């Protein structure tokens, strides 16, 4: 399936834009609530970090992902500057996928048009829910009307690749309401849906509320029901599951996110972002190889990141080298997230996979395993079983 | 020279309950006599094992010689023998006491006397030791030294005004303790000219020196070159070195009558120098051994199995290593259908078992499954054969047995009166028979019950503590065997019998016990990818059943961004946890499950 592309140069770039209007209750990403001057300094720092990448900053890219945070909250001239910097430093392949992550609040057709003009060709819209109670629970800054309007604006601006993020198993939202919201989303021109379960991350406002019993924890029944509903409704609308939480019309699977799951190397710049490089690429950054692959991650706080980078650093908070065992474990763990499945190599794993297939959790064809519907609901356990075999 | 020398020796021990300050007092004595300089002073000098310091208990006996110039201007040699402080090590305590002429009884000024302490005091009195009571921790706000002194008077019969008032923590009264040791404890009596008789009160295995034997010379003398003989055990050995503890080992020319020290001979195994045995001179043997020797024998047995079957050999070697230093530990190979190859080990008690298990895991890096401890039952087969069964799984079918007997113990519980009701209830629940109740000074009572040993090796001690808010304490001794209607309670997991989960219970309690056991197992066995039935059975008949439902959801279907590291780290941690479980058939069973029988709510 996936040839051993890990050794090559990265063909994907993630750029983190940390600015948000407010902190959503469930979010544990690196964000910054600052506007104004910090935005200028942040964009200057991104440029500086790219400069520091040396030869790695002049590669050909297949995918670029402007994620956040809320990149759409970056001042228009600064966003243009970021994209320009990327365009002049890197070469974008003719069919490059360039995604921007946006939120419905403050979105206008004019704004969307400027993105289009910058060469951005994919929009990932943070709808999350169309249920007012659900949106309140999540602490989102927009309402359902704004979300629906945003979907149409993006299409009107000429985008042909729109993805919506939805969250399911929100406490208090019943499955019928979730189904209604999803059907409503599907009345708009949507090619891709990321359907994530609500995860209570430690340290988030939601976690504190759940801990103090001010908010109920997500329920298993709702998870199973709504996952089932999502699969069915999206499937009948032509969006098939290709990853545990991602559904797309044929040809619209996110190539950037697939790079993560298929162990393709990727660059990452900006606070809180994570990158993955081959030892050969890492050597270009002056790192002495201590393994086959390198994972690195950045300082989470925007101001600290800016200071570090402006002082001549890469703004990394840490890195780790992966040996063959770690690379193989990640290959299996990530590959199992995909509907296309993963090839197993160990005899122990294949024996265990056979047992799991008898339990209806996997299909096994030769050495290729693919999670079934029930397998996806138990994916972490299935992964553990195979990785411990 | 010799009788003069004897007059300047005092051999004594400290009797105290856990936490009553024995180790702290010993530290102060070492400091004050200059045996250990303040600079080298670590807390609890005599508890050398990490485990001892952590748990605040003494596992091995220790000895130390302290030089002391008394108020009379003369120099004395004080030998402090520190004894183990737990009910599991009662025999070792008695031998350490037998090496002394006196004992300090240390009692916490805010707690009063505990049953365990009292048992040791009686032991000391039986051995003819002089007791000097020390009321410790008098600096505490809640201290009631006078009341405690009064209690000592009424319980032991030593006048309250004879009690020394001490705070080992602050050092208050410690000088008086040293003077009392010299003035109130008798010098050893012994005949320096008689044939050698020396009492072994402990021994340890030293990787470099072989077995180091702790001795108290009663008659005669030992020096390097002496050919010694063990009077109860076998074997002659040439002594390579004799010495004293200060507290490190310091060689001396000879150990004479009345003295305490160590000897090193070409002894390879601690089994060849049994605690309580008498050492004599091979060329000029004594006619009679010192009294009181008996073989230390295990009271409880359990199976130890490595989780990874390839660790069997490592476990065997680790047990051999521990046995070098622990004569009470026994083991023999055991095979379990569920757990594979392991060892059936005999222990003095539950604490001993826990200590061995913890040392195996900590010092030898093994991951073990320990099966629930069992006692040894006596079985008479229909064909007239007799057998001892210490492994529940080996209990024969009722049809094959003429009868089965279980060991019984006399349990003495010392408790404040207010908890008597709850404690009597506890003994009743455990098939106990009331023997005696005695009220003592200070609102205390001494409760005596006759109980099956099998009923107290589990969580009896914990229950005793929790039903008395920690105030009750206990001691027990084996009294004999009694025929009972006992049956084997089997456990089936996913339809297959798991031999390591079998237990022996009274017929009348089988259904109740079976129900609670499967309920408990349901709590500790995590959900699997399929439904798992847990059943309890007696003689092939299912008496109760619970079901662990299949896992329905186990995925975080969230966006990780590119943060794969976090996902992998979590997976690695889970994999480690998984490796601590035992896969039996297709079901993964955690270690706690094998101990579930110990933690049943009654």
Structure explained in plain terms:
- Chain A has 389 residues and is an alpha/beta fold.
- Chain A is 40% helix and 22% strand.
- Chain A has 15 helices and 15 strands.
- In chain A, the strands form 3 sheets. A 9-stranded mixed beta sheet of chain A has the order 7-8-6-5-4-3-2-1-9, sandwiched between helices. Chain A has a 3-stranded antiparallel beta sheet with strand order 10-11-12. A 3-stranded antiparallel beta sheet of chain A has the order 13-15-14.
- The mean pLDDT of chain A is 93.
- Chain B is 25% helix and 34% strand.
- Chain B contains 15 helices and 32 strands.
- In chain B, the strands form 7 sheets. Chain B has a 6-stranded mixed beta sheet, sandwiched between helices. A 6-stranded antiparallel β-barrel of chain B has the order 7-8-14-11-10-15. In chain B, strands 20, 21, 22, 23, 24 and 25 form a 6-stranded antiparallel beta sheet that branches.
- Chain B is globular.
- The N and C termini of chain B lie far apart (65 Å).
- At the A-B interface, strand 6, helix 8, strand 10, helix 12 and helix 15 of A face helix 14 of B.
Low-confidence stretches of chain B: none
Distance between the termini of chain B: 65 Å
Radius of gyration of chain A: 21 Å
Largest interface: A-B, 45 and 26 residues
Overview features:
heterodimer, A: 389 residues, alpha/beta, three-stranded antiparallel sheet, 15 helices, 15 strands, globular, B: six-stranded mixed sheet, six-stranded antiparallel barrel, 25% helix
């Amino acid at each position: 399936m996936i040839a051993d592309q890990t050794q090559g140069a990265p063909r994907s770039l993630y750029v983190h834009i940390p600015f948000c209007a407010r902190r959503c209750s469930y979010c544990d990403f690196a964000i910054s609530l600052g506007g104004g001057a910090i935005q200028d300094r942040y964009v200057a720092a991104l440029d500086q970090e790219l400069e520091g990448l040396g030869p790695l900053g002049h590669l050909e890219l297949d995918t670029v992902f402007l994620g956040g945070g809320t990149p759409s909250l970056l001042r228009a001239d600064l966003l243009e500057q970021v994209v320009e910097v990327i365009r002049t430093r890197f070469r974008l392949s003719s069919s490059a996928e360039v995604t921007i992550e946006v939120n419905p609040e403050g979105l206008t057709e004019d704004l969307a048009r400027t993105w289009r003009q910058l060469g951005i060709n994919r929009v990932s819209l943070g709808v999350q829910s169309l249920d007012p109670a659900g949106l309140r629970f999540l602490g989102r800054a927009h309402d359902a009307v704004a979300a629906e309007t945003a979907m149409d604006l993006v299409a009107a601006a000429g985008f042909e690749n729109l993805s919506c993020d939805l969250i399911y198993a929100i406490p208090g939202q019943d499955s019928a309401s979730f189904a209604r919201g999803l059907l409503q989303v599907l009345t708009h021109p949507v090619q891709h849906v990321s359907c994530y379960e609500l995860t209570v991350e430690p340290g988030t406002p939601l976690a504190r509320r759940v801990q103090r019993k001010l908010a109920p924890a997500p329920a298993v029944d709702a998870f199973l029901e709504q996952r089932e509903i999502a699969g069915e409704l999206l499937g009948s609308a032509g969006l098939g599951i290709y990853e545990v939480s991602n559904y797309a019309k044929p040809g619209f699977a996110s190539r950037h996110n697939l790079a993560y799951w298929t162990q393709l190397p990727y660059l990452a710049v900006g606070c809180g972002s994570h990158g993955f490089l081959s030892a050969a690429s890492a050597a270009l950054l002056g790192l002495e190889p201590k393994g086959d692959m390198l994972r690195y991650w950045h300082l989470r706080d925007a101001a600290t990141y800016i200071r570090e980078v402006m002082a001549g650093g890469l703004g990394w908070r840490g890195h780790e080298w992966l040996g063959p065992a770690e690379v193989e474990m990640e290959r299996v763990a990530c590959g199992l997230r995909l509907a296309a499945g993963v090839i197993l190599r160990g005899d122990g794993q294949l024996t265990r996979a056979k047992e799991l297939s008898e339990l209806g959790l996997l299909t096994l064809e030769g050495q290729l395993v693919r999670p079934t519907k029930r397998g996806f609901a138990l994916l972490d356990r299935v992964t553990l079983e195979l990785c411990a075999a | 020279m010799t009788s003069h020398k004897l007059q300047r020796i005092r051999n004594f021990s400290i009797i105290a309950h856990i936490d009553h300050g024995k180790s702290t007092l010993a530290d102060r004595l070492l400091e004050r006599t200059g045996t250990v300089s303040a600079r080298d002073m670590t807390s609890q000098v005599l508890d050398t094992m990490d485990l001892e310091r952590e748990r605040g208990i003494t596992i091995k006996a220790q000895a130390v010689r302290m030089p002391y110039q008394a108020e009379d201007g003369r120099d004395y040699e004080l030998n402090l023998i520190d004894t183990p402080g737990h009910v599991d090590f009662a025999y070792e305590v008695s031998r350490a006491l037998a090496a002394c002429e006196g004992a300090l009884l240390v009692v916490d000024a805010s707690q009063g006397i505990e049953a365990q302490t009292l048992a040791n005091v009686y032991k000391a009195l039986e051995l003819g030791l002089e007791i000097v009571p020390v009321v410790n921790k008098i600096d505490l706000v809640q201290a009631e030294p006078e009341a405690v002194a009064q209690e000592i008077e009424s319980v032991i019969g030593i006048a309250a005004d004879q009690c020394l008032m001490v705070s080992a923590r602050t050092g208050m009264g410690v000088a008086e303790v040293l003077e009392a040791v010299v003035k109130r404890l008798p010098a050893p009596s012994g005949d320096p000219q008689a044939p050698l008789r020396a009492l072994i009160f402990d021994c340890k295995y030293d990787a470099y020196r072989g077995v180091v034997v702790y001795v108290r010379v009663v008659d005669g003398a030992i020096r390097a070159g002496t050919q010694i003989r063990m009077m109860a055990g076998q074997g002659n050995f040439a002594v390579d070195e004799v010495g004293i503890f200060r507290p490190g080992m310091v060689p001396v020319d000879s150990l004479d009558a009345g003295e305490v020290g160590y000897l090193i001979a070409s002894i390879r195994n601690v089994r060849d120098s049994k605690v309580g045995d008498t050492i004599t001179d091979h060329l000029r043997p004594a006619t009679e051994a010192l009294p009181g020797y008996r073989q230390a024998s295990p009271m409880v047995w359990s199976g130890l199995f490595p989780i990874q079957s390839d660790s069997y050999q490592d476990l065997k070697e680790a047990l051999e290593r521990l046995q070098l230093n622990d004569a009470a530990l026994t083991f023999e190979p055991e095979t379990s259908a569920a757990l594979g190859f392991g060892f059936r080990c005999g222990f003095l008690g539950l604490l001993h078992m826990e200590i061995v298990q913890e040392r195996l895991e900590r010092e030898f890096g093994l991951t073990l499954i320990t099966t629930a401890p069992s006692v040894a039952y006596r079985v008479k087969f229909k064909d007239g054969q007799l057998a001892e069964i210490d492994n529940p799984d080996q209990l024969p079918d009722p049809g094959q047995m003429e009868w089965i007997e279980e060991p019984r113990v006399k349990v003495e519980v010392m408790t404040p009166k207010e908890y008597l009701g709850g404690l009597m209830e506890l003994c009743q629940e455990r098939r106990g028979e009331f023997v005696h109740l005695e009220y003592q000074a200070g609102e205390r009572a001494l409760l005596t019950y006759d109980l099956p040993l099998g009923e107290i090796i589990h969580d009896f001690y914990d229950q005793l503590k929790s039903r008395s808010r920690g105030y009750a304490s206990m001691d027990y001794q084996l009294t004999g065997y009694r025929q009972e209607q006992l049956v084997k309670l089997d456990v089936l997991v996913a339809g297959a019998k798991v031999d390591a989960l079998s237990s022996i219970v009274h017929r009348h309690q089988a259904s109740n016990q079976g129900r609670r056991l499967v309920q408990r197992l349901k709590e500790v066995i995590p959900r699997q990818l399929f439904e798992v039935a847990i059943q309890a059975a007696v003689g092939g008949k299912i008496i109760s059943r619970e079901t662990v439902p299949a896992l329905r959801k186990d995925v975080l279907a969230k966006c990780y961004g590119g943060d794969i590291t976090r996902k992998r780290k979590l997976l690695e941690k889970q994999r480690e946890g998984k490796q601590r479980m035992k896969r039996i058939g297709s079901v993964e069973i955690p270690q706690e499950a094998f101990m579930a029988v110990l933690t049943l709510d009654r």
